[in-house]
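ugh ok fine here u go
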Amino acid sequence: MDEEEAALVADVDRRATDYLRGIEQRRVYPDQRALDGLGRFEELLPDRGRPGAETLALLDDAGIPATIATNGPRYFGFVVGAALPVAAAAERLMLAWD
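structure:
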């Protein structure tokens, strides 16, 4: 793994940790502004992919506000399979093995 790849892994780990640390303060369901922000994903298929760090930033900035906080303490909907931190960590390890 080179330095750029290691930086991506560290960046996504930090973003995921920040998300989980703030889950108790998040809205259970996104507001209209967050849903409107999903429009940032509407684009033509590019000739070349965007840099990994830019993709992660887009997912974090536009995607996270529009998530449904099913793994938070105030979600009383259907059981849809929210990931516990240990399950996400195990998946992260398995992805490294692949």
